[in-house]
User: What shape does this take?
Amino acid sequence: MTNPSETHPLVAKVLKVKPPIAELIGFEIKGIGEGHAVGLLQTGPQHYNPMGTVHGGILCDLADAAMGMAFASTCAPNDGFTTINLSINFFRPVWKSTLRAEARVTNRGKTVGYVECDVTNEDGKLVAKANSTCFVLTGIAQRREKS
Assistant: This one.
C-alpha cells in the first residue's frame, strides 16, 4: 500500500479532469483517499431504460468508478490495477434521484484487493450493492513510458 500522504497519479488526474466516461454519464468522484471514494450522479431521463427506470448499467458504472478510485488510492505511485471481478445486486428501482456510491477497500493484500460499494438514493435508501476484486499491476507506469 502507498503512504496515505501521497496521492496516486491516477487519483490526481481524476480530481483535476473528469474522465470521458464520467462526462458521458454525468457522474463525479469525490473524497478519494485511504481506500475510500464517493461517486455522485444526478439521474434523469437520459439514464432510463425502456421501463422508465435508471438502467442497471448506469448504477454499475457509478459503483465501478467509485470502487476503482478507492482501490487506486491504496496503490503505490508507479502501480496500476485492473478489475478481475465485478458484481452488483439491485434492490429497488431508481427514477429521478441524486445517487451516492460509497466505496471502500475492505481487504488489501500485496497483489489483490477486495472493494465494496453501497449505492443509495437521495433518501439514503440502499438501491444497489456492488463489489469488485482488483489485481495490482506493479510498475505499470514505467512500462507505459517504454511503449
Q: What stands out?
A: Residues 9-146 form a domain with the Thiol Ester Dehydrase; Chain A fold (CATH 3.10.129.10). The beta strands are 27-33, 36-42, 80-90, 98-108, 112-120, 126-137. The chain has a mean pLDDT of 92.
